[in-house]
Structures are given as structure tokens and as C-alpha cells.
Design goal:
single chain, 6-stranded parallel sheet, binds NADP nicotinamide-adenine-dinucleotide phosphate, binds zinc ion
Length: 350
């Protein structure tokens, strides 16, 4: 099936119209007309080859929401017309120990990510959600709760699960003091989820213009992370800190804010290494860890949790023709708080 999309042809030129073939719907597959796709900072890191060299053309996009248009004969959980989501993964072996524990993102054979991953069906690479439709194995398709708005739900498919999973893994509950570092796409959803879990939430931002928004989003306090006095007031006090920052920054300043046995989980993936002063861990028996998205079962659990607590993203809806400008604004931390592409705009290009 010919599919219209936007792609990067290399690391330095703007994304532009591109078309390619999607596979035919197999017996386990669901074909989805893409209605909305969120713009994750990982899209930008990938297309600009900031982590490692991407394979081009690269069609990014892993916060996909759309409508089922066709299902294979072995698919009975979905039917034509259903509103569904696809996140960062489209396949895994489903048989290894990690897959069996519902942690497909750590599949021992390698999870197949929604874009820039080897595609076993075509022999090429996977193409993501900046496109008009996608064909996905039924095991990697999520149900969208009926009460949620589709455009503002799209970012939950990556930013939502990436923040929900570590909050749950570290047992964030009522009465705990939780920090969220960086108020971008991941950070603003992290704030909403931590609040919904009952935590006392403190946002750390480098952008004074975001202070009022942070309070509106549910933060109990906001700290200008460039102000040392404001930082000092929170020394040794946090149970858990979620760091969503996409660029190089000083993590030791945050580790010192953890109380004894507190944990800082890094989900932001700066392209440069971060400097760790081990004494910030040793005094206080603090720990630092990382977290990668979340498995499919937990992604569904997160969507249902968001349905129950009415959590969706604050978005700026853009036509796909504005994607390059959106990337430039992401680099300036100028997004309130997730760009979402209205995929109907793709028809104006072709
Ligand atoms: P985003 O919307 O651009 O937000 C990042 C935020 O970090 C910015 O809004 C800004 O917040 C802060 N920031 C940016 N540059 C900074 C700097 N130099 N110093 C201090 N703070 C800075 O990005 P996102 O989509 O939320 O993604 C964040 C990171 O998570 C990216 O690296 C992305 O690749 C990664 N990610 C990881 C996973 C995973 O599974 N682990 C999944 C998805 C994304 P303030 O303006 O408030 O300071
Ligand atoms: Zn993402």
C-alpha cells in the first residue's frame, strides 16, 4: 500500500514529503488510519543522528492515535472503526524471559521500535507515525479509553508510559515528595501522573516562563533550577526524582536533593555523557537508575489509569508542514507542552 509521509533524508536537511509501501494486512495485523501523532524529542535526536547514525530515509513518530480500517482474520480484539494507539514498539519475539514478563522493550532478541528499526516484513527499516497509515501486529496495538480526546491522548503513547512506568516501579504513592526535572513533553505528563498517584510534586525548570503553567498542571512547588538558593532549600528531602532533561546538565545537583535511600531515575537521553560524582550517591545510600518506555501491558494500564483520572497532554496541534519549525522550537525548550501533528494536514501536501 502506497503511504504518504514526511521523512528526513539525512541528518541535516529538513523533513519533507516522502512515500513508501506499507505491508499488506497479515492475519495478525491491524491497519490503522493515523489521525494524530505526537512529536517526541526522541524523533529529533534520531533524525539528526544525535545518538547514533540513523538509517535514511527516516520517518519518525511513535505517539500514534488512529482509527482501525482493517484487521487480519486472527484478530478479534479490534474491529473496523475502533480508536487505537501505537507507541514506541511494533514487534518483539514475545517468547524470551523479558517478553514473558511483559517487558517487551527489553526483548532479548531486540524490540522492534516503531521507526528506524529492522523491519522483518520488508527487510528494510520501520517507518513511524508521521504518515497516513500503519500496519501493526495486534499484540502492539492499544485501546484508547472512550472518554479521552484523541489528539491530547497521542502523547501518552510515549511520554505517558515513559513517566508512568518509573513512577510505578519506584512505588510513588500518597505523601511522598517527588521531583520532576524539565517541563517539556515528558515532564508535564510526569507532573500530572505523579499528582494523580497522590505525591507532593516539585517541578524543576530552567524556564521562568513555565512557573505558572507548572502550578496549573498540578505542581505543589516550582523551583528555578538555575537559582542555587532555591535548590538548597530542598536538600535531602525527595523520595524520588524523575529527570526528563534532553540535554547535558548537572545531575549531582539533583542527587543531593534526595533523602536517604531516595532514587533519581533518568529518562531523558542527552547525547553526551553526564558526569556523576559518586559521593552524591554514597552519602545517603542514594541510587540512580534509568528507565525505557514500558511494556505493552503496562502501557494499556497507563492508558486506563489516564482514562480514570482524566489525564491527557497539553498540546499545540500543528500541521505536518510545520514540523521543522516545531523541531527548532523543541531545541529552545519552547513547547507547551507537546506538539501533536494533525495528520489530516498531510493531504494538503500530496
Ligand atoms: P522536550 O519536550 O524537549 O522537554 C525537555 C525539557 O528539558 C525542556 O522542555 C526543558 O525543560 C529541559 N531542558 C532542555 N534543555 C535543557 C538544558 N540544556 N538544561 C536543562 N534543562 C533542559 O523533550 P521530551 O520529548 O520530553 O523528551 C525528553 C528526553 O527524554 C529526550 O532526551 C528524549 O529522547 C527522552 N525520552 C526518553 C524515553 C525513555 O524511554 N527513556 C522516552 C521518550 C523520550 P525546562 O524548560 O522546564 O527547563
Ligand atoms: Zn518518545
Amino acid at each position: 500500500m502506497k503511504t504518504n509521509a514526511y521523512a528526513a533524508q539525512n541528518a541535516t536537511t529538513p523533513l519533507a514529503p516522502f512515500s513508501f509501501e506499507r505491508r499488506k494486512v497479515g492475519k495478525h495485523d491491524v491497519q490503522i488510519e493515523i489521525l494524530y501523532c505526537g512529536v517526541c524529542h526522541s524523533d529529533l535526536h534520531t533524525v539528526r543522528s544525535e545518538w547514533s547514525r540513523a538509517t535514511y530515509p527516516c520517518v519518525p513518530g511513535h505517539e500514534i492515535v488512529g482509527r482501525v480500517v482493517k484487521v487480519g482474520k486472527d484478530v478479534n480484539r479490534f474491529k473496523e472503526g475502533d480508536k487505537v494507539g501505537v507507541g514506541c514498539m511494533v514487534d518483539s519475539c514475545l517468547a524470551c524471559a523479558n517478553c514473558k514478563e511483559n517487558l517487551e522493550q527489553f526483548c532479548e532478541k531486540g524490540a522492534i521500535f516503531t521507526y528506524n528499526s529492522p523491519d522483518k516484513y520488508t527487510g528494510g527499516i520501520t517507518y513511524g507515525g508521521y504518515s497516513e497509515s500503519i500496519v501493526v501486529d495486534k499484540e502492539f496495538v492499544l485501546k484508547i479509553p472512550k472518554n479521552l480526546d484523541l489528539a491530547t491522548t497521542a502523547p501518552l503513547l510515549c511520554a505517558g508510559i515513559t513517566t508512568y512506568s518509573p513512577l510505578r516501579y519506584h512505588n510513588v504513592t500518597k505523601g511522598q515528595k517527588v521531583g520532576v526535572v524539565g517541563l517539556g513533553g515528558l515532564g508535564h505528563i510526569g507532573v500530572k501522573l505523579a499528582k494523580a498517584l497522590g505525591a507532593y510534586v516539585v517541578v524543576f525548570t530552567t524556564s521562568p516562563s513555565k512557573v505558572e503553567d507548572a502550578l496549573r498542571l498540578g505542581a505543589d512547588e516550582v523551583v528555578n533550577s538555575k537559582n542555587e538558593d532555591e535548590m538548597q532549600k530542598h536538600l535531602n528531602s525527595f523520595h524520588f526524582i524523575l529527570d526528563t532533561v534532553s540535554a547535558k546538565h548537572d545531575i549531582n545537583a539533583y542527587l543531593l536533593l534526595l533523602r536517604r535511600d531516595g532514587n533519581l531515575t533518568q529518562v531523558g537521553i542527552p547525547s553526551e555523557p553526564l558526569l556523576l560524582s559518586v559521593s552524591s550517591l554514597i552519602f545517603g545510600r542514594r541510587s540512580m537508575s534509568g528507565s525505557l518506555i514500558g511494556g505493552i501491558k503496562e502501557t494499556q494500564e497507563m492508558l486506563d489509569f489516564c482514562g480514570k483520572h482524566n489525564v491527557t497532554a497539553d498540546i499545540e496541534l500543528i500541521p505536518i508542514q510545520n514540523i521543522n519549525e516545531a523541531y527548532n522550537r523543541l531545541l529552545k525548550s519552547d513547547v507547551k507542552y507537546r506538539f501533536v501533528i494533525d495528520m489530516a494536514s498531510l493531504k494538503q501536501t500530496v
